[in-house]
Every structure is written in C-alpha cells, then in structure tokens.
Amino acid sequence: MCWSSSNSEVVASNKTTLEEVLDIENNMAHQWVLNAPEPPSMLRQVVDNVKETLLPHPNPNTFSYLRNQPFSKRAFALLQNLFPILASLQNYNAQKLKCDLMAGLTLAIFAIPQCMGNATLARLSPEYGLYTGIVPPLIYAMLASSREIVIGPGSVDSLLLSSMIQTLKVPIHDSSTYIQLVFTVTFFAGIFQVAFGLFRFGFLVEHLSQATIVGFLAAAAVGIGLQQLKGLFGIDNFNNKTDLFSVVKSLWTSFKNQSAWHPYNLIIGFSFLCFILFTRFLGKRNKKLMWLSHVAPLLSVIGSSAIAYKINFNELQVKDYKVAVLGPIKGGSLNPSSLHQLTFDSQVVGHLIRIGLTIAIISLTGSIAVGRSFASLKGHSIDPNREVVSLGIMNIVGSLTSCYIASGSLSRTAVNYNAGSETMVSIIVMALTVLMSLKFLTGLLYFTPKAILAAIILSAVPGLIDLNKAREIWKVDKMDFLACTGAFLGVLFASVEIGLAIGCRSRYHLRR
Questions:
Q1: Confidence of residue 10 (pLDDT cuts 50, 70, 90)
Q2: Distance between alpha carbon 429 and the CA centroid of its chain, in Å?
Q3: pLDDT tens per residue, range 42-81
Q4: Within 10 A of 371 (CB to CB), how many other CB atoms are there?
C-alpha cells in the first residue's frame, strides 16, 4: 500500500509539473505573438547580405576569435576573405607556379585570336577584344571563389550585344555612338549582376530553364555561323541582322548582284577552319596531341597573315587588296579610360537598361554553369552569390576601361583545365601576356585576314549545339522540349528577345 501511494504521489507531481510547463510555453507563445520583434530594416538586410557575400567564412566564430589577435593577423584574415586568391597562395610552391605559368601561356595563345574574333562579332575593332581580355580577368581572379573559370569576351554575349543594340544605332554608320552604347550596356549589365548577388535575386536566372538555354544557344550558334559568312567570303555589304531570313536574303543579294568578294578569302578561311577542326579531332583521339588544338588558332593567324601579306604585297591601296585584312590596330598602351563615353541620354537609356538586364542574365547563367561543372571535377564548390558579384564588379570596371561585356568562357576554361592550371595565377599570367601582346605585337596583326577570325569563331560554333541534351530533354519531358523548340525557332527566325520570351512563356503556361 505504501508503495502504491508513493507512486500515485509521484505521478500527480509529474502531471502538475507538465501542466505548469505547458502553461508557461503558452504564455510565452502569446507574448511572442503580441510583442513580436520588429523585422530587420532594408538597410540591415543589405548590410548582412554584403557581409555574407564578401566576407564568407565556414566558422562564424572566426572573426570573434580574431578580435584578440594582433592587427596584422586580423588584417590578413580580412584580406583573405575579400580576395580568395590569397588563401590559395598560402601553400604555393615552385611546382604550382610552373604549372600556372605553362597553363597561362597556353591559354593566352588560345585566347588572343578568340578575343579579336569575338570583338569583330560584336562589331567592334579587334583591340576592344584584347582590352576585354586584360582588365576583367585580372579583377575576377582577385575576387572570385572559383579556381577555374576563365573570363573574357564570349561569342554569345558578343552576338547579343550587336543584335540588340543595332535596333538603336547601326554600327557601320556611327561607330563612335555605337561604342558608347556598348560601354553603357556593359555598365548596366554589371550593375544588375552586383544587385543580383547582394539582394539574392538569383531566382531570376531560374526562369531560364535548361531547355530554354539549350534552344537559345543552338539558335545563337546558327546565327553566329551565318554572320561569319561575311568574313569567310569577304563580302563587303552584308546585313547586320542575325535572323535567318535577313542573312539568307543578304547572301542571295550579294551573289546575285556580284558584289565585291574575293575567292582568296574563302580559300584561306575554309582551309584554316579545316586545320583547326582537324587538330581538335586529333586532340580528342590522343591526349598527347591536345596541345596542338590549343595552339592551332594562333598558328592559323600567323600562317594566314603570311599568305595575305604575300598576296597583297604588290597592291598599293587597301581597297585593292585581294584578301581582306584587319588593317591598323590601336595598341601600344594600357586600356584607355572610357568613363567619358558612357551615355545616359533619356532617348535610349531605357532601352540600354533593358538590353543590360537581358545580357546580365544570359551571361550569369552560362558563367555559373561553367564554374559549377569544372569545380565538381576538382572536388570543390563555388559560392554563386560571390561569383555573381565578382562578375558584376569586373563588368562595371571594364565599362570604364574600354572593355565590353565579359563572362566565363567554356572553351577557354577547358583549355585552362587541360593545361594543368593549379590556381587563378594562370588567369593573371594570361591577362599579362595579352597585355604584352597589345603593347608590342599589334603592328604584326595588320595583315591578319578577316577570314581567319571568322574561321576561329566558326570552329567554336559546334560546341554551342548540344544535340545530346536536346535528345535527353525530349525523352524526359515533352513540354520542356516544346520550350526548347520555341526558344530555338524564336531566336532563329525573329530575335533574341522574342526567342527567350517564347521559351520562358511556353514553359510557364505549359506547367500551369
């Protein structure tokens, strides 16, 4: 009896205790609802986002610990978070330096012709491509969390830039105004990219589904290839539009009216295009010959320039040249300032902001995809928000130093990876090599045929068309395939904006 009575007392006391605890929790909950704390202000949220993006650290107590450390140690820790490249240099040695030097030089040999070719695709002089191959990579190498992405002018961005700006000003009629518009669009694109990173607006990129991107890139590749027929055939008068109907009509008119075009351009361009593609084929079959595909563009530039010099040697005037060449390229100095060339004219600024937003999203989508792919190959990850902010900062600074839109390049990143790059030092080596070339070697590029730059761009077109991915989309989701097809047809037959709008809208409505 005593045992049972004591048990009942314990149960009763536990029940009382439990009821008291529940009452306390209910009172606290009611008090929390009635006296809820105020949410952080917009300014506080922005400050927190900036700290998380620019000063990330896996251990949140690190900075509390550093408060008791010497100033030099605290300053170095802060610099490491601001400039991640410093962390990779802590265990740097001679072997890594050798790998980075070789990778950087190989990368420069591959990148210089591509930079010039993409600049012509953007309807700019070749030196602007070289400018864009110097300042943006240097800034990105210091700020980004990625160890692999190679920055520079891209073919898709160049096509977008020229095709969207030409509705405002036709480049061939007013080149100075066109350059101002290019720099201003680059500036706005950088502003949007920084905002995306600091305000966590990455969800905007998600509206471009993988299916839409596959269709867009395939159509862009076709447009890039068609536009390069001007340089490949040496046609003087060619349509600036990128849709299929306009390009085919321009080609037919040129041949029908027997416009001035020389067969030497086609022979040179097509021959070296076959050479570049053949070296790429050899590199895929035999890894020991991969280096040959990397230097093939530069060898093509040197060989074709020698041939063009020989053919045009006896001609007194440039207009009589049988092989169209680049002519004089402005060089011999660092990137000139372009701050005074930014234009905020009320008549066009709204259109430039819209173009900047479109290019910012497309550029981010491709760059982040490249970064994640190659980071996974080396077993580490990237910080997407920091990458976005780094891309934005480099484009803002680039717009002030005669650069146009720059982004992560899949082909150049692959070259950097295959060349054995260890850190972002290889990107710095590449940028400095491009700078030296711009300062001392631009005079040697006078006789570089326009057809060879067209051939270099055409050699990169197959990499933009992913038939395997399109086939996979068809098997997995027919609705996504319709979005892919809509984006492809819209870009190919109408314009970039219409194609992207069709891809995004069709995917949204089909999912409802």
A1: very low
A2: 19
A3: 666 666 666 666 666 544 445 555 566 676 776 777 787 7
A4: 24
Tell whether the torsion through CA atoms of 201, 203, 205 and 207 is positive or negative.
Answer: negative
Q: Are 457 and 117 a contacting pair, CB within 8 Å? A: yes
- What would the two tokens of residue 134 be? 């110097």
| Pair 403, 136: CB distance under 8 Å | yes
The closest of 209, 137, 228, 144 to 430, measured between CA atoms, is 137
**What pLDDT is stored for residue 3 in this prediction?**
45
Partnered with residue 325 across adjacent β-strands are 449
Contacts with 459 (C-beta within 8 Å, 6 or more apart), sequence order: 273, 276, 277, 280, 297
Tokens 């230097």 map to which residue?
Answer: 295
Cα of 214 vs its chain's centroid, Å: 16
Fill in the amino acid letter for 20: E
Strand pairing category for 151-152 and 407-408: antiparallel
Encode pLDDT of 290-348 as tens digits: 889 989 999 999 999 999 999 998 887 777 788 989 988 887 778 899 999 999 988 88
Read off the pLDDT of each residue in 26-51 and give the average, rounded to a whole number.
60
**Which residue in 466, 453, 398 sits closest to 143, CA to CA?**
398
Amino acid at 84: P
User: What is the amino acid identity at position 473?
Assistant: I
C-beta separation of 152 from 132 below 8 A: yes
356 within 8 A of 185, measured Cβ to Cβ: yes
- The neighbour count for residue 88, using CB atoms within 10 Å, is 15
For residue 367, what pLDDT is reported? 86
Dihedral (Cα; 269, 272, 276, 278), 10-degree rounding: 120
Would you state the structure tokens that stand for residue 370, as one six-digit string?
Answer: 């490249």
Query: DSSP state, 463?
Result: G
Q: Which residues lie closer than 8 Å to 69 by C-beta, 6 or more apart?
A: none
**Phi-psi bin for 258: left (phi > 0), alpha (psi -120 to 50), beta?**
left
- Is residue 455 within 8 Å of residue 300, measured between CB atoms? yes
Q: Is the pLDDT confidence value at 425 over 70?
A: yes
Report the alpha-carbon distance of residue 261 to residue 435 in Å, rounded.
Answer: 34
Please say whether the dihedral angle defined by the alpha carbons of residues 157, 163, 164 and 165, taken in this order, is positive or negative. positive
Q: Rounded to whole angstroms, what are the CA distances from 380 to 145, 347, 373? A: 10, 47, 10
> Within the chain, how many helices (H) and strands (E) appear?
24, 2
DSSP assigned state of 341? G
Of 142, 128, 153, whose CA–CA distance to 428 is shortest? 142
- The burial class, CB within 10 Å (0-12 / 13-18 / 19+), for 11 is exposed
Cα 308 from Cα 321, distance rounded (Å): 9
